[in-house]
Write a structure and sequence with these properties.
Length: 236
């Protein structure tokens, strides 16, 4: 047996592997989680995808928890960071749409982000910029907290609904047609009317993320005006 055919010692990379780095590990882990789900990600499978020995990963990461934290940081780094340039609603609207689209792209991430405390630089930068945008627009800190909670609840809740129970307009129309006979118009006229519209293709029946987001933003604008704050005149 030649030296080149011997199995590498634990903690070393295979000779055919590219140089191993924390960034390369995290990027590969993201790809695996996106393709197969976070529940199927293991350090062994990650090492196999990287063509390294599993113990090599621990030269760059302490454990799987640190791996997941790093993966979530990578996801958050894709979010648009809001900047106040005179129109806080547009900035926060872009912020929410970006986060929603990124979380749909990485469907395993939303639930983990809700269940873990993330104080990584990407999350802190995103959160601080979000607070700063609203503060520069005239929101005080208690109102900022309410506003961010309302927007983020919409982002995460809507995203999880789409991920866990995706329904196309065609599927919704078929379901409406199936159940319509069980919804007599004389007993449930309004539900019957809505189901008929959906069945006939006159209404998609699919929830609209931006519709709900705009309701929240319009409501926050009214709250800001009622509090007597002037956009662009922050208070402490």
């Amino acid at each position: 047996m030649t030296n080149s055919s011997k199995k590498p010692k634990h903690g070393t990379t295979r000779k055919s592997a590219k140089p191993l780095s924390r960034a390369r590990i995290l990027n590969t882990a993201l790809q695996l989680a996106d393709a197969n789900g976070i529940e199927k990600l293991s350090m062994r499978k990650l090492a196999l995808a990287l063509d390294v020995e599993a113990m090599s990963l621990y030269n760059h990461l302490s454990n799987k928890e640190e791996l997941i934290d790093g993966m979530l940081e990578g996801v958050v780094s894709e979010f648009d960071v809001p900047i106040f340039e005179g129109d806080w609603k547009s900035a926060m609207r872009s912020r929410a749409i970006s986060a929603h689209e990124v979380l749909i792209k990485h469907p395993w991430a939303a639930l983990l982000m809700l269940s873990r405390v993330n104080v990584g630089s990407a999350m802190m930068t995103w959160a601080n910029a979000s607070y700063g945008c609203l503060h520069d627009a005239g929101f005080d800190y208690p109102l900022i907290d309410h506003a961010i909670n309302a927007m983020d609840n919409h982002i995460y809740g809507f995203t999880l609904q789409i991920i866990n129970a995706p329904v196309s307009s065609d599927e919704y129309a078929n379901a409406a047609g199936h159940y319509l006979p069980l919804i007599p118009a004389d007993e449930y006229p309004h539900i019957n009317a809505m189901a008929t519209l959906i069945m006939q293709g006159e209404h998609s029946g699919v929830n609209d993320f931006e519709f709900g987001l705009d309701l929240i933003l319009d409501g926050l604008e009214r709250v800001l005006a009622a509090a007597g704050k002037v956009s662009g005149s922050p208070i402490s």
